[in-house]
Amino acid sequence: MSLLELENVTLKFGGVTAVNNLSMSVEEGEVFALVGPNGAGKSTVFNMISRFYRPFRGSIRFDGKDLLKQKPNQVSSQGIARTFQNIELFERATVLQNLLVGRHRHRKTMLLEEMLFIGRARAQERENRLAVEEVIDFLDLQAYRDQHIAGLPYGVRKVVELARALATKPRLLLLDEPASGLSVEETQDMRWWIEDIRRQMGITVLMVEHDMGLVGKVCDRVLALADGAELAQGTPAQVQAHPAVIEAYLGT
Ligand code: ADP
Ligand code: MG
């Protein structure tokens, strides 16, 4: 059984078919990339998996369960976390505070119960702290821990965005353009983080990325999308050499 399975998924926005009868599956433990020109539907696929949008048709299963039957705010507690193409952090809060807020969102359904059972809330708070400190150490963010997001360089914010998602301890991590806007060295670092996340944390990664150099190095499999539909699927080398993919890229 695949960890994530999309079957015949379609989503339209008015007259635009953003995703058109797409089927794909991601296996536990792999790093899988979605590639394709701008407007191909990549972020829309992420938005459906994270339940921001509901597909018009088709099914999405995570760990064998129908994800579309879960409430949108339950996706995180099911074990799915994501980063955003445009970083979404609280600018006036510190790195630590942003990661703790990410954990609280993760536990949203527990809050009332926590308020009623103070002892349990303390235990939860300790668990949140531990999870957050662990991620700060893992991603080498100690030096930035108590700094405000607004003062941090873009490359560091990208790592904090990654940390916020990781702190929820997901089984599946969705990365929307993890290397966009990064320098060559920062992209190289991002590559090592992604490899460590897979190897040391055992987390499955589904990413959208334009940097085919990075995709070729970290991904096991790639699916190329154009106009919301699959163009080609296979190893990075197979997909890059596929005539339909070459044509789609040259055409934009
Ligand atoms: P990508 O991430 O591959 O660049 P998107 O998934 O963002 O592409 O967009 C796919 C298509 O769906 C585009 O034509 C885009 O304009 C459209 N689209 C995406 N989100 C919305 C929305 N909320 N409302 C209307 N159209 C949208
Ligand atoms: Mg996008």
Summarize it.
It is built from 10 helices and 10 strands.
Describe this structure in words.
There is one protein chain. With 252 residues, this protein is α/β, with parallel strands linked by helices. It has 2 domains: 1-79 and 170-252, P-loop containing nucleotide triphosphate hydrolases (Rossmann fold), CATH 3.40.50.300; 90-169, no CATH class. Helices cover 41% and strands 23% of the residues. It is built from 10 helices and 10 strands. The protein has helices spanning 42-49, 75-78, 95-106, 111-116, 118-138, 154-166, 184-201, 212-218, 236-241, 243-250, and strands at residues 4-13, 16-26, 31-35, 57-62, 65-66, 80-82, 172-176, 204-208, 221-226, 229-234. The strands form 2 sheets. It has a 6-stranded mixed β-sheet, with helices on both faces. β1 and β2 form a beta hairpin. α3 packs across α5 and α3 (95-106) packs parallel to α6 (154-166). The longest helix is centred in the middle third of the chain and has 21 residues, at 118-138. The chain is globular. The two termini are 37 Å apart. The relative contact order is 0.18. Adenosine-5'-diphosphate is lined by residues 13, 16, 18, 36, 38-44. Keywords: ATP-binding, Nucleotide-binding, Transport. InterPro entries: AAA+_ATPase, ABC_AA/LPS_Transport, ABC_transporter-like_ATP-bd, BCA_ABC_TP_C, P-loop_NTPase. Pfam families: ABC_tran (PF00005), BCA_ABC_TP_C (PF12399).
